[in-house]
Amino acid sequence: MSDLLVLCAFLAFAVFLVAREQKFAALAGWACIVFNLWSELPAFLKENNFLYPVLAFLSLPFLVITADRLLRADPVVLQLSRTAAIATIIYVPFALLPFLRDALITVVVTLASGLITALGHSPHMAAWDIIAEKAFYNQIIPGCTGILAIALVPGIVFGEKNLSMRQAVLAFLLVVPSIFILNLLRVVTVFIAVSDTWFASFPDPTGTGDANFFWAHNVIAEGLAVFFLLALVWGLVRIIPDLGVFARKLGGVYRDSLLGLMNVVRDGIRR
Predict the structure, then answer these.
(1) Which residue in 118, 132, 175, 210 has its CB near the most CB atoms, within 10 A?
(2) What is the pTM of this model?
């Protein structure tokens, strides 16, 4: 189901980028993204990952507001949709085409294994995509490659229409190498933290008897990734000041719409 929704999002956003009447294609693309997020919710909960379940619940009011604004042809939400469309077009081939996905995973596995070895550890390959040491077996999946963030940030950049060649080149050089390198460091650090049981004395909310992966990956690595992406967006705003203007307008649109939605719900409850 997930792959089908991802493909539908790809097709909807592809139509959005080339069609004159864009709002319905954009709405279809956003709906597929939200439904896909909800379809993966059981897996996230099973892994004790709290970031994506929170995003799933927030996605519902987001979709309602986005749909309303798209039907009004709001230029700010149309630019946001263009950002999502570009990111989706970049991301989906790596998610659905095995040769691209496996090639990217192979690069990450090779580099991560070499870096772990250079740091004094002795990992071995339990399979082509599994790095192991001691009792820890770490399978590298597409989510471990950083491809989603690599696709998302160029989407933000190239969603801006008034972009000079200099801004585009500087933004690319800031985004793609830094995300790839920092994601690689994330993979390596999580692997070493779990294999060396850095967090063995921490509380175990998973109930598995081993809290190392939960704290290393779900809490610290995910949290730092969010802060890093925010810092990256700040850097992009320094290169492309119009992105700062867009961000302020976008925040205002969703703030005002959310307050209006809350007032409607409150009035409905009172009646």
Answers:
(1) 175
(2) 0.81
Q: Tokens standing for 143?
A: 């989510």
- Burial zone of 86 (CB within 10 Å; 0-12 exposed, 13-18 middle, 19+ buried): buried
Query: Range of 41's domain?
Result: 1-96
DSSP state of 215: I
Listing DSSP states for 166-177 in one string gives HHHHHHHHHHHH
| Cβ-based neighbours of 177, under 8 Å, separated by 6 or more | none
Q: Where are the alpha helices (DSSP H) in 72-164?
A: 75-96, 98-118, 147-158
**140 torsion bin: left (phi>0), alpha (psi -120 to 50), beta (else):** beta
Residue in 56, 223, 100, 123 with CA at minimum distance from that of residue 231 = 223
Count of domains observed in the chain: 2
Do 158 and 175 reside in the same domain of the chain? yes
Predicted confidence pLDDT, tens digits, the chain (271 residues):
478 888 899 999 999 988 777 789 999 999 999 998 888 877 766 666 667 778 888 888 899 999 999 998 899 999 999 999 999 999 999 988 999 999 999 999 999 999 999 988 888 888 888 888 887 788 888 888 888 888 887 788 888 877 788 888 888 888 888 888 888 888 888 888 888 888 777 777 766 666 777 778 777 887 888 888 888 888 888 888 888 888 899 888 888 888 877 776 666 666 6
Domain boundary among 96, 117, 148: 96
- Of 243, 264, 254, which is closest to residue 62 (Cα–Cα)? 254
- With b for 16 or more beta-carbon neighbours within 10 A and e for fewer, the 223-254 pattern comes to eebeebeeebbebbbebbeebeebbebbeebb
- Residue 58 DSSP symbol: H
